[in-house]
Amino acid sequence: MSDLLLSICLPTYNRADFLAYLLGQAAETWTFSFPYEILITDNASTDDTEAVVRKHAGLGLPIRYYRQTENKGGGPNLLTAFHRASGRYVLYLADDDLLDPAAVEEAMAFLTAHPDVRAAYAPWQLYDDVAKRPVGEFFTIDRDVLYGPGQEGELLNLIIERHIFPEIVIYRADAVRRIMAWPRFCFWAFVFLAGTIGQGQIAFLKAPYYRSVVNTSVRANRDQAGIEEVMTGWDTYRGGLEYFVYTILQRNGVSLADENRKAVQEMIDQFIAERMKVALRLWLERGDYMNAHDIACRLAYRDPALVRDIPGMERLPLMLVMQKLARFANAVGGVERLELVGVDEAAHLMPLLRQAGLEERIALNAGASPAEDALPEHTIVFLARDSDRQTCLDRGYAPNLVISEPELLTGLYPPA
Predict the structure, then answer these.
(1) Under DSSP, is residue 297 helix (H, G, I), strand (E, B) or coil?
(2) 316-409 architecture in CATH?
(3) Distance CA 239, CA 271 (A)
(4) What are the angstrom distances between the C-alpha of 408 and each of 66, 229, 318, 320, 386?
(5) CA of 145: how far to CAs of 148, 154, 167, 258, 383, in Å?
(6) Cβ(240)–Cβ(191) under 8 Å?
(7) Which H or E run includes 204?
(8) Is 202 exposed, middle or buried (0-12, 13-18, 19+ CB in 10 A)?
């Protein structure tokens, strides 16, 4: 058995600046009482990642480094880190997040005192690294709690009630050895949890040791895989929960009566509806009203009350029309102009079209009829009144490039 107690696994790709900052923080604050290593797996970065690694290794950090021959994707790169790790325990850390060293010490003390526990899950702290303070937790646990085989139903209740995503975890190394594939249609954290609790006891710890950085001085703009996943991944969350339930039923030789199956499915539906509400809010904040509309329709199908009181929903009908028109104009080849004909408050709507994404290359004009210099071959006409259509057709505008307001409003939710 390795003398190393903990492997901190750091998969990375083309974020040398974040990695340099994280390793600098590690050098300053990771004064653990136990031996550990930093296992970095590089997904064939094309920036200065390797130089950053070698610099900090030369300064004394206990780094081991593996470089992929090509970008394998995030899942395989993390699997590489897990299976190259030498410690008795394995912890995943994103290259743009941080750890709370004192809380890591506490978690490792718990695992040392409970050697049969195969994985210790914990909430994660939302952390403002500019202000150097926590700003909340993604979920909360009242006390440290253990679950073992046969207690999966209690664990499922905890997951649903606390809206838990079991992503932050310290695995025992022999539990990691069972993780050899990355699921596509089922959220990985639920799949791995189902497999791990089948091996023995797992723990959910009260104290967060992982800091998910929400505000950083490293880079003004950064892509956060977790945010993108929240905005698109709810169907994989459903798949992961269904996988979890199916696995534990099969493992225990249990089948559900119809009424119990419906009750479990309702629990899963409620969990997913909450995640979709979060996604809807994020799409509205991003200004992607077409994606927001799609999610709003799916939520309203389940229960119209689910979309009430979500900030930004009051603007959705108008901005959806603007964005549909803007993206249509952007998409049609050869279009150089958009004419708004007979539109009330056109001076107010024209800036909204730009805000909704109408490309600057497309000229924008409004009037009682298309401008005389507008070339029909290169122009889309938006009509407030369909009665003006024939006039536009008589002037040579293509029928499929003359769009009326009722056509854009078709299928709109909520009603305009």
Answers:
(1) helix
(2) 3-Layer(aba) Sandwich (3.40)
(3) 12
(4) 52, 30, 11, 9, 12
(5) 10, 11, 17, 31, 63
(6) yes
(7) strand 202-204
(8) buried
Predicted model pTM = 0.87
Higher pLDDT among residues 352 and 228, named by residue:
352
Helix (H) or strand (E) holding 269: helix 258-286
CB 176 within 8 A of CB 78: no
Give all strands (DSSP E) within 32-168, no chain letters: 36-42, 63-67, 89-92, 98-99, 119-121, 124-128, 133-137, 145-147
Alpha helices by DSSP H, listed for 357-409, are 389-394, 405-409
Q: Cα Rg for the chain, rounded, in angstroms?
A: 27
DSSP tag of 415: -
Q: What angle do CA 26, 175, 71 make, to 5 degrees?
A: 60
pLDDT in tens, 30-54: 999 999 999 999 999 999 999 999 9
Inter-CA distances, 329 with 340, 358, 361, 381, 409, Å = 12, 7, 11, 10, 16
Contacts with 254 (C-beta within 8 Å, 6 or more apart), sequence order: none
3-state secondary structure at position 71: coil
Domains 6-215 and 316-409 share a fold: no
Q: What is the pLDDT of residues 126-161, one digit of tens each?
A: 999 999 999 999 999 999 999 999 899 899 999 999
* Distance (Å) of CA 371 to CA 3, 375, 381: 79, 9, 10
CATH dotted code for 6-215:
3.90.550.10
3-class secondary-structure state, position 341: strand
Q: Domain coordinates of the chain in residue numbers?
A: 6-215, 225-314, 316-409
Distance CA 67, CA 109 (A): 32
* 3-class state of residue 320 by DSSP: helix
Distance of CA 106 to the CA centre of its chain: 29
For the chain, count helices (H), then strands (E).
15, 16
324 and 410 Cβ atoms separated by less than 8 Å? no
Length of the chain: 416
CA–centroid distance for 178 within its chain: 25
User: Which tokens belong to 102?
Assistant: 């004192």
